[in-house]
Amino acid sequence: MSDSGQAPIVIYQEADQAVEVRLDAEHETVWLTQAQMADLFDVKPQNITMHLKNVYADGELEEEATCKDFLQVRQEGRREVKRKRKHYSLDAVISVGYRVSSARATRFRIWATRVLREHLTQGWTLNRQRFEENARELEAAMALVRKTAGSPALDAASGRGLVDIVTRYAQTFLLLQRYDEGLLTEPHAQAGGRLPTLEEARTALASLKAELIAKREATELFARERGDGLEALLGNLDQTVFGEPAYPSVEAKAAHLLYFVVKNHPFADGNKRSAAYLFVDFLYRNDRLLDAHGEVVVNDVGLAALTLLIAESDPANKATMVRLVMNMLASPADA
């Protein structure tokens, strides 16, 4: 029914007795197993079972509303065993407590009420701050769109792509707002992501260059490296910080690859087209070019508009642009 990840554990302690309690701030309650209730009220587990049966039989509480299954992970020898355990809400705990020892139930109720109040108050404050920050970020993103829309480099097709980006970005914002009070940060992402080696990137760009020259859409200056800019860029994307990847996910690597090639100008000519091509190549190498329905994650027109949007953006808005790309790549279920 419910997963333990949705209910953080806090500790209730009285004298030398400590009981782990699952907190469910969303439903303003806490959850205990029958064994925990037995520890809490210092009685045998069979007594708790009997009292719970009577509570539900008398119609004092509804079992469906006050009893849920949570997954517990326990170490048994060398094995990690997962089992579902029935947990009972604060109402059920107090009902049993009154039948066993009202004094203990009262002390636990006072403690539980205080803990819930603290968590709910702190949670509201954090969500309020997040909402205000995200509202400012969305406003900044829309300002970038308005600026880009006035660019002479934006043709009709790119304009349609820009509208698609705005729509999807707004939808992502609304989904996240409903999920967590407007939490517009990085989406849940796929860990890992293999970047191309310098030679692989050069080979991919050489193929693109030959094709464009054949169409008379580029010159020999296209994708010609300026110093070691491309090598340094790929090295930075693959770096670690304190032993952990600086860009730990496919989405993060893809977004930063696109952004850095556009903004850092590692080539004498064709930085935006090269950035878009390396971006698509990276997604293809990591099986992320198509979504679950077999459609491209970002189509050609949308990619052109997104690349132009990054090019027109102020460097101060880098975090906003990176998050925009990451949310574009995340599926609605992951956002």
From TrEMBL:
Q: Which PROSITE patterns match?
A: FIDO
Domain Fido spans what residues? 179-327
The record's section on Gene3D superfamilies has: Fic/DOC protein, Fido domain
**SUPFAM superfamilies xrefs:** Fic-like
Q: Which InterPro entries match?
A: Fido (IPR003812), Fido-like_dom_sf (IPR036597), Type_II_TA_Toxin (IPR053737), Virulence_RhuM-like (IPR011204)
Question: Which PANTHER family does its entry note?
Answer: CYTOPLASMIC PROTEIN, CYTOPLASMIC PROTEIN-RELATED
Protein name per Swiss-Prot or TrEMBL: Fido domain-containing protein
Q: Which organism is it from?
A: Halomonas icarae
Q: What is this organism's lineage?
A: Bacteria, Pseudomonadati, Pseudomonadota, Gammaproteobacteria, Oceanospirillales
